[in-house]
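thread: overnight batch results

M.L. [08:02]
morning all. the overnight job finished for the chain we discussed friday. pasting input first so we're all looking at the same thing
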Amino acid sequence: LLLLAPDALDGPTLRSTLEIGKPVLAERPMPARVEEWADFEHSPNRPVPVPRISASRHWLAGAEWIEAIGPVEAMQLSLRCHPSEGSLVGRLADGIDLMLSQMGMPAQIAAFGPSLGEAPEAHRGESRTPVAMTAGFADGRWVAITVAIGPHPWHRGVELLGPEGAVRWNDRTVEWIGPDGLEQGGDTGLPGGEARDAVTSRPGGVIGEFLHRWWVRQDGSSDPPLPHRELLACLEAARLSARTGCVEDPGGLMSLL
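M.L. [08:03]
and the structure it wrote out:
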Protein backbone atom coordinates (compact mmCIF):
# COMPACT_ATOMS: atom_id res chain seq x y z
CA LEU A 1 0.00 0.00 0.00
CA LEU A 2 1.47 3.37 -1.05
CA LEU A 3 0.25 6.39 0.94
CA LEU A 4 0.45 9.74 -0.84
CA ALA A 5 -2.04 11.65 1.35
CA PRO A 6 -1.59 15.44 1.66
CA ASP A 7 -1.08 15.10 5.42
CA ALA A 8 0.21 12.40 7.72
CA LEU A 9 -2.45 10.00 8.99
CA ASP A 10 -3.54 10.39 12.59
CA GLY A 11 -2.79 7.58 15.05
CA PRO A 12 -6.10 5.65 14.89
CA THR A 13 -6.29 5.84 11.09
CA LEU A 14 -2.68 4.69 10.75
CA ARG A 15 -3.27 1.76 13.11
CA SER A 16 -6.31 0.69 11.08
CA THR A 17 -4.25 0.91 7.88
CA LEU A 18 -1.46 -1.23 9.30
CA GLU A 19 -3.93 -3.89 10.44
CA ILE A 20 -4.50 -4.97 6.84
CA GLY A 21 -1.17 -6.78 7.13
CA LYS A 22 0.31 -5.49 3.88
CA PRO A 23 3.59 -3.55 3.52
CA VAL A 24 2.85 0.17 3.80
CA LEU A 25 4.98 2.78 2.04
CA ALA A 26 4.50 6.51 2.65
CA GLU A 27 5.81 9.77 1.19
CA ARG A 28 6.65 11.02 4.69
CA PRO A 29 7.53 9.39 8.03
CA MET A 30 4.54 7.97 9.90
CA PRO A 31 3.79 8.33 12.73
CA ALA A 32 4.66 11.97 12.28
CA ARG A 33 4.80 13.05 15.92
CA VAL A 34 7.17 12.08 18.70
CA GLU A 35 4.32 11.55 21.15
CA GLU A 36 2.73 8.93 18.84
CA TRP A 37 5.83 6.75 18.64
CA ALA A 38 5.03 4.64 21.72
CA ASP A 39 1.90 3.29 20.02
CA PHE A 40 3.91 1.91 17.09
CA GLU A 41 7.34 1.08 18.55
CA HIS A 42 6.65 -2.65 18.73
CA SER A 43 4.51 -2.90 15.62
CA PRO A 44 5.89 -5.45 13.13
CA ASN A 45 4.50 -3.41 10.25
CA ARG A 46 5.55 0.24 10.30
CA PRO A 47 5.28 2.50 7.23
CA VAL A 48 8.50 2.85 5.23
CA PRO A 49 9.15 6.35 3.81
CA VAL A 50 9.77 6.45 0.04
CA PRO A 51 11.76 7.29 -1.88
CA ARG A 52 14.91 6.72 0.19
CA ILE A 53 18.28 7.77 -1.20
CA SER A 54 19.97 5.26 1.11
CA ALA A 55 17.95 2.38 -0.41
CA SER A 56 18.14 3.55 -4.03
CA ARG A 57 20.03 1.33 -6.45
CA HIS A 58 21.43 4.54 -7.91
CA TRP A 59 23.03 5.30 -4.54
CA LEU A 60 24.17 1.72 -4.03
CA ALA A 61 25.77 1.79 -7.50
CA GLY A 62 28.27 4.36 -6.18
CA ALA A 63 29.06 2.48 -2.97
CA GLU A 64 32.56 1.48 -4.08
CA TRP A 65 33.58 5.07 -4.74
CA ILE A 66 31.99 6.25 -1.49
CA GLU A 67 34.06 3.70 0.40
CA ALA A 68 37.19 4.85 -1.46
CA ILE A 69 37.13 8.32 0.10
CA GLY A 70 37.42 6.87 3.60
CA PRO A 71 35.31 7.80 6.63
CA VAL A 72 32.88 10.56 5.69
CA GLU A 73 33.90 13.80 7.41
CA ALA A 74 31.28 16.13 5.95
CA MET A 75 28.17 15.83 3.83
CA GLN A 76 26.04 18.33 1.92
CA LEU A 77 22.59 17.50 0.54
CA SER A 78 20.26 19.51 -1.68
CA LEU A 79 16.70 18.31 -2.25
CA ARG A 80 14.17 20.15 -4.42
CA CYS A 81 10.82 19.33 -6.00
CA HIS A 82 7.51 20.76 -7.16
CA PRO A 83 4.70 20.90 -4.53
CA SER A 84 2.83 18.16 -6.42
CA GLU A 85 5.83 15.84 -6.07
CA GLY A 86 6.38 15.74 -2.32
CA SER A 87 6.34 17.46 1.03
CA LEU A 88 8.97 19.47 2.84
CA VAL A 89 8.98 17.00 5.73
CA GLY A 90 9.22 14.04 3.34
CA ARG A 91 12.22 15.45 1.50
CA LEU A 92 13.98 16.49 4.72
CA ALA A 93 13.39 13.01 6.13
CA ASP A 94 15.07 11.51 3.04
CA GLY A 95 18.16 13.61 3.73
CA ILE A 96 18.19 12.81 7.46
CA ASP A 97 17.83 9.08 6.71
CA LEU A 98 20.94 9.25 4.52
CA MET A 99 22.82 11.21 7.20
CA LEU A 100 21.99 8.56 9.80
CA SER A 101 23.04 5.70 7.51
CA GLN A 102 26.39 7.29 6.65
CA MET A 103 27.36 9.15 9.81
CA GLY A 104 25.13 8.11 12.69
CA MET A 105 23.26 10.23 15.24
CA PRO A 106 24.40 13.88 15.52
CA ALA A 107 25.02 15.64 18.83
CA GLN A 108 23.17 18.80 17.85
CA ILE A 109 20.86 20.15 15.16
CA ALA A 110 20.07 23.69 14.06
CA ALA A 111 17.40 24.45 11.46
CA PHE A 112 16.30 27.62 9.72
CA GLY A 113 13.12 28.46 7.84
CA PRO A 114 9.62 29.30 9.06
CA SER A 115 8.05 26.61 6.86
CA LEU A 116 9.50 23.91 9.11
CA GLY A 117 8.74 25.51 12.45
CA GLU A 118 5.20 26.72 11.85
CA ALA A 119 3.51 23.30 12.12
CA PRO A 120 4.35 19.67 12.96
CA GLU A 121 3.78 18.73 9.32
CA ALA A 122 4.37 20.88 6.27
CA HIS A 123 1.41 20.69 3.92
CA ARG A 124 1.87 18.92 0.64
CA GLY A 125 0.60 20.71 -2.46
CA GLU A 126 1.88 24.16 -1.48
CA SER A 127 5.12 26.00 -2.15
CA ARG A 128 7.16 26.40 1.01
CA THR A 129 9.90 28.75 2.14
CA PRO A 130 13.22 26.89 1.65
CA VAL A 131 14.68 25.43 4.82
CA ALA A 132 18.19 24.52 5.91
CA MET A 133 19.33 22.10 8.58
CA THR A 134 22.84 21.66 9.96
CA ALA A 135 23.92 18.79 12.15
CA GLY A 136 27.11 18.64 14.21
CA PHE A 137 28.84 15.60 15.67
CA ALA A 138 30.95 15.37 18.80
CA ASP A 139 34.07 14.54 16.77
CA GLY A 140 33.76 17.59 14.50
CA ARG A 141 31.99 16.02 11.53
CA TRP A 142 29.04 17.90 10.07
CA VAL A 143 26.09 17.68 7.68
CA ALA A 144 24.18 20.44 5.86
CA ILE A 145 20.79 19.81 4.24
CA THR A 146 18.75 22.28 2.18
CA VAL A 147 15.18 21.58 1.04
CA ALA A 148 13.04 23.62 -1.34
CA ILE A 149 9.43 22.92 -2.33
CA GLY A 150 8.33 25.21 -5.16
CA PRO A 151 8.69 25.72 -8.92
CA HIS A 152 11.66 23.35 -9.09
CA PRO A 153 12.38 20.19 -11.06
CA TRP A 154 12.98 17.04 -9.04
CA HIS A 155 16.53 16.99 -7.70
CA ARG A 156 18.41 15.03 -5.05
CA GLY A 157 22.10 15.88 -4.83
CA VAL A 158 24.74 14.76 -2.34
CA GLU A 159 28.40 15.67 -1.85
CA LEU A 160 30.54 13.69 0.59
CA LEU A 161 34.02 14.70 1.75
CA GLY A 162 36.57 12.26 3.17
CA PRO A 163 40.31 12.04 3.79
CA GLU A 164 40.87 10.37 0.40
CA GLY A 165 38.73 12.61 -1.79
CA ALA A 166 35.12 13.52 -2.46
CA VAL A 167 32.04 12.01 -4.10
CA ARG A 168 29.30 13.95 -5.88
CA TRP A 169 26.05 12.06 -6.44
CA ASN A 170 22.61 12.69 -7.89
CA ASP A 171 19.88 10.45 -9.28
CA ARG A 172 21.66 10.32 -12.66
CA THR A 173 25.40 10.38 -12.02
CA VAL A 174 28.11 9.74 -9.46
CA GLU A 175 31.59 11.31 -9.59
CA TRP A 176 34.68 10.57 -7.54
CA ILE A 177 37.31 13.30 -7.10
CA GLY A 178 40.63 12.01 -5.81
CA PRO A 179 43.19 13.87 -3.67
CA ASP A 180 45.07 14.79 -6.85
CA GLY A 181 41.99 16.47 -8.31
CA LEU A 182 41.41 13.85 -10.98
CA GLU A 183 37.74 13.01 -11.58
CA GLN A 184 36.12 9.74 -12.51
CA GLY A 185 32.42 9.23 -12.98
CA GLY A 186 29.52 8.04 -15.01
CA ASP A 187 25.83 7.30 -14.85
CA THR A 188 24.42 5.28 -11.98
CA GLY A 189 23.62 2.11 -13.86
CA LEU A 190 20.46 3.17 -15.66
CA PRO A 191 19.87 3.17 -19.41
CA GLY A 192 21.18 6.24 -21.17
CA GLY A 193 19.43 9.19 -22.73
CA GLU A 194 15.68 9.62 -22.53
CA ALA A 195 15.09 6.30 -20.76
CA ARG A 196 17.40 7.28 -17.93
CA ASP A 197 15.95 10.79 -17.64
CA ALA A 198 12.39 9.45 -17.56
CA VAL A 199 13.24 7.34 -14.52
CA THR A 200 15.44 9.66 -12.51
CA SER A 201 14.17 13.16 -13.23
CA ARG A 202 10.64 12.45 -11.98
CA PRO A 203 9.61 11.26 -8.50
CA GLY A 204 7.14 8.78 -9.99
CA GLY A 205 9.99 7.01 -11.72
CA VAL A 206 12.11 6.96 -8.57
CA ILE A 207 9.25 5.59 -6.47
CA GLY A 208 8.26 3.16 -9.23
CA GLU A 209 11.76 1.70 -9.33
CA PHE A 210 11.63 1.22 -5.56
CA LEU A 211 8.19 -0.42 -5.75
CA HIS A 212 9.38 -2.76 -8.49
CA ARG A 213 12.29 -3.98 -6.38
CA TRP A 214 9.97 -4.32 -3.37
CA TRP A 215 7.48 -6.37 -5.37
CA VAL A 216 10.15 -8.65 -6.80
CA ARG A 217 11.51 -9.36 -3.31
CA GLN A 218 8.10 -9.19 -1.58
CA ASP A 219 9.75 -7.39 1.33
CA GLY A 220 12.41 -4.81 2.15
CA SER A 221 14.91 -7.28 3.60
CA SER A 222 17.87 -6.15 1.50
CA ASP A 223 17.31 -2.42 2.07
CA PRO A 224 19.28 -0.58 4.75
CA PRO A 225 17.30 -0.72 8.01
CA LEU A 226 15.22 2.38 8.65
CA PRO A 227 16.13 4.08 11.95
CA HIS A 228 12.58 5.17 12.83
CA ARG A 229 13.31 6.48 16.34
CA GLU A 230 16.42 8.39 15.34
CA LEU A 231 14.69 9.83 12.27
CA LEU A 232 11.72 11.10 14.29
CA ALA A 233 14.03 12.59 16.93
CA CYS A 234 16.08 14.47 14.32
CA LEU A 235 12.94 15.76 12.61
CA GLU A 236 11.53 16.96 15.93
CA ALA A 237 14.86 18.63 16.79
CA ALA A 238 14.80 20.44 13.43
CA ARG A 239 11.20 21.61 13.97
CA LEU A 240 11.97 22.90 17.45
CA SER A 241 15.13 24.66 16.31
CA ALA A 242 13.33 26.35 13.42
CA ARG A 243 10.63 27.50 15.82
CA THR A 244 12.84 28.68 18.68
CA GLY A 245 16.10 29.66 16.99
CA CYS A 246 18.04 27.44 19.39
CA VAL A 247 20.31 24.47 18.79
CA GLU A 248 18.59 21.23 19.78
CA ASP A 249 19.86 17.86 21.04
CA PRO A 250 18.21 15.01 19.08
CA GLY A 251 19.63 12.43 21.47
CA GLY A 252 17.80 14.05 24.36
CA LEU A 253 14.57 14.04 22.37
CA MET A 254 15.05 10.39 21.44
CA SER A 255 15.17 9.52 25.16
CA LEU A 256 11.55 10.72 25.30
CA LEU A 257 10.41 8.25 22.63
